[in-house]
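Renewal narrative, Specific Aim 1. Our central claim is that a sequence can be written position by position from structural information alone. The example that follows is taken directly from our test logs and has not been curated for this report. It begins with the structure tokens describing the chain, in the order in which they were read.
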């Protein structure tokens, strides 16, 4: 017998995450094969048409069910917690959307390519999106404190940990020895390569328009967050 707090939404969010992981990681694995047949731009468009709708559905469902299940803790009234959550969330976006990403390539305006980046946030961690996702999950799980949010966070973290292996594997296949050298100069764990002396921060690399865009995005998110929650609540999922 299911415990009363273990609502069906716990299974639904896991199912949505599995579907997104298969589409996203599967699409990435098919990239070399697909680009040879339909070209990089058309591949990018198809990849976005599959991944983005699934991501939007996942986000809306999470917003609408975030307080489902067992309330494991409640710290929203504790002084300082809200500021901590917002600061962690802002930091997470610096990792989730690093300046090394070429937005014109993502939008397929320029020819999408696979790069061996080793500058900016990549000096901190070779897999900044994994780091950003973990920080985001810690912040939101701390704030909401429900079993549904905890399970969602565990699923997201597991997907990104798989992405670490999968991403390294694909780059190794594509670049071989060149990627092996990059691995030797970088680290997965944040700041490890810097502490070890294999890497050094160059702050000038962070003075790029993309980081200004991230700062503006975080400010807009702060302002629009209540409206976003109201809008998603109107979708009866």
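The sequence written for that structure reads:
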């Amino acid at each position: 017998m299911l415990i009363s707090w273990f609502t069906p939404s716990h299974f639904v969010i896991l199912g949505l995450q599995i579907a997104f992981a298969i589409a996203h990681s599967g699409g990435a694995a098919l990239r070399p094969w697909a680009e040879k047949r339909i070209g990089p731009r058309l591949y990018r468009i198809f990849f976005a048409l599959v991944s983005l709708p699934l991501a939007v559905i996942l986000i809306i469902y999470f917003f609408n069910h975030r307080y489902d299940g067992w309330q494991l803790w409640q710290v929203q009234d504790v002084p300082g917690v809200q500021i901590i959550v917002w600061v962690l969330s802002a930091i997470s976006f610096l990792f989730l959307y690093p300046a090394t990403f070429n937005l014109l390539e993502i939008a397929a305006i320029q020819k999408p390519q696979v790069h061996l980046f080793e500058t900016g946030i990549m000096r901190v961690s070779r897999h900044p999106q994994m780091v950003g996702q973990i920080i985001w999950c810690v912040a939101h799980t701390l704030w909401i404190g429900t079993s549904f949010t905890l399970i969602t966070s565990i699923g997201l973290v597991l997907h990104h940990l798989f992405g670490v292996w999968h991403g390294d594997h694909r780059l190794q296949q594509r670049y071989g020895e060149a990627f092996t050298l990059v691995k030797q100069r970088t680290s997965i764990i944040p700041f490890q390569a810097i502490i070890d002396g294999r890497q050094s921060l160059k702050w000038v690399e962070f003075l790029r328009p993309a980081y200004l865009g991230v700062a503006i995005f975080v400010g807009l998110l702060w302002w629009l967050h209540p409206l976003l929650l109201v809008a998603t609540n109107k979708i009866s999922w």
